[in-house]
Amino acid sequence: MGVTCVCQVPILEGKSVQQTVDMLHKKLEQLGAVKQGSFFVDCETYHATSNASGKKRQPSKLLYVMHNSETPLSCLALFEGGPYLTADVNFDVLMVKLKSHFQNAKGHKVESRGTRYRYCDFLVKVGTVTMSSSARGISVEVEYCACVVPGDCWNLMKEFMQSFLGSNVPELPSVFAAKPEGLYAPVDCMDTMVQYLELFSKVRKQQVIPGASVR
Amino acid sequence: MADVMNVGVNLEAFSQAINAIQALRSSVTRVFDSLKDGMKNKETLEGREKAFITEFQDNLQAVNRDLNELERLSTLVGRPSESHPLHNSGLLSLDPVQDKTPLYSQLLQAYKWSNKLQYHAGLASSLLNQQSLKRSANQMGASAKRRPKVQPSTLALPPQYVDDVISRVGRMFPDVSIELFRPNGTSAVLLVTLGKVLKATVVMRSLFIDRTIVRGYSENVYTEDGKLDIWSKSNYQVFQKVTDHATTALLHYQLPQMPDVVVRSFMTWLRSYVKLFQTPCQRCGKFLQEGLPPTWRDFRTLEAFHDTCRQ
Ligand SMILES: [Zn+2]
């Protein structure tokens, strides 16, 4: 587990999502990156019912349940703004049992699927973000596997991302700066999921691109 | 000759002792056999018990006798010598198929040669140090006569001394943590953790660094059975490169008369990797070259370069 950065890449003017993804693939292959299987990250949204929010009627937080193909035996549960939880994949069954407390927001499932690329010690995942089977955008995850401290390797990662994202290089993910020890705390897998969650929420609020169905 | 005789006597005692062990085992077996069979059929219950107890007592006495015999013989056998100069490898000389696999004699030869080489290298280096400005051969000859008989002692330093040197080096650098292990006899293996960047396994022979493997901070440095892994390489290309350069550095930093200085210089050099991912190349100014950060560190200036950017 290295330092990861997840960002959204805008769709090229006059191109479709798939055409933009193909462009990215081509640029990575020109660099010398090698295809290494596929990946997915998905996210379901749950509303707390009045049973769960208690008597004080606090504004109820949303609960997100996510999966990542890199950790196929885990299921990650994230409350809006924390706390975050890593659980066994059985957690999905538990959520069904808890449906009197947490209601699945149907049609809110977002996922990103695509190809994994390996380049030296970098892992790059270019994914198409879909929501109710329409393509909503493109996610790019870059992981520098050899380093665990964001403060150490951020500039290096930025230089790498520049080589195939050009001017679309993202800022330092805020999840790293938010930690009590700051940028020099070792990363964990939750940092990646929080970044995907932020990207998915952004995509959800976005306008539907007309005629961009993928299936 | 005396040695051979000695071995002969020992062998006799050995074979007697083996016989005694066999006797002891069979008498113990007899005890349990009779216990297992239980009481024999006799007319009266009393008679049965008596016969059983007598048999049991006889058997136990036989065990006692055999045990005493074995103890007596074991004092004759003596201990295998533990103070062998080559430690456990001395046991190779006990191999009966010596003629087919002359491993031990070859090992002794190699050891002798290595010691000789070390000794001559030491003399050469001290001569060169003294004579750096004087080139006259006369002088060399004169000093050769007074040449002190330096023992190749650096190969057999007491472990305590090695510990001291290592702990002093560790105190010099606050961002370096050094753990010392002795998994195989007296030779030390160091686990050097550099900040949150890398972990280097350094295998020592006395105070000489034998080999080193550099791995990532998050990588496992132990084998499955919990021992320090001194063989398998890093999974990451950047640390494989650093391992190669560290091996080069071991060849560069050589000073046979002052091995502790070598250890200190090597650690100072290795420590410059604490900014492995943060320092751009001093030549091309970039972080990455073919996907790798600047993995080379100059031996003098400790400046960072890509492998392809150094001269
Ligand atoms: Zn360079």
Question: How would you explain this protein's 3D organization?
Answer:
The complex is a heterodimer of chains A (215) and B (311). Chain A contains 6 helices and 9 strands. Chain A has 215 residues and is an alpha+beta fold. Chain A has 2 domains: 3-39 and 112-205, TATA-Binding Protein; 40-104, no CATH class. In chain A, strands 1, 2, 3, 4, 5, 6, 7, 8 and 9 form a 9-stranded antiparallel sheet that branches. The two termini of chain A are 32 Å apart. Chain A has helices spanning 17-31, 50-53, 91-97, 150-165, 174-177, 189-205; strands spanning 3-9, 34-48, 62-68, 74-79, 84-88, 102-104, 110-119, 122-131, 134-144. Chain B has 311 residues and is an alpha+beta fold. Chain B has 3 domains: 2-77; 88-125; 159-278, no CATH class. Helix content of chain B is 48%, strand content 12%. Chain B has a 4-stranded antiparallel sheet. A two-stranded antiparallel sheet of chain B has the order 5-6. In chain B, a hairpin with a 2-residue loop joins strand 1 (176-184) and strand 2. In chain B, helix 1 (2-37) packs antiparallel against helix 2 (45-77). The two termini of chain B are 61 Å apart. Mean pLDDT of chain B is 83; it is low at 1-8 and 134-149. At the A-B interface, helix 4 of A face helix 6 of B.
Based on secondary structure, the structural category of chain A is: alpha+beta
Ligands in the model, by name, code or SMILES, are: zinc ion
Order of helices and strands of chain B: HHHHHEEEEHHEE
User: Number of helix segments of chain A?
Assistant: 6
Any idea how many domains of chain B? 3
Percentage of residues in DSSP E strands of chain A: 25-35%
Low-pLDDT parts of chain B are: 1-8, 134-149
**CA(first)-CA(last) distance of chain B:** 61 Å
SSE ordering of chain A: EHEHEEEHEEEEHHH
Estimated radius of gyration of chain B: 31 Å
- How many runs of DSSP E, i.e. beta strands of chain B? 6
CATH domain class name of the largest domain in chain A: Alpha Beta
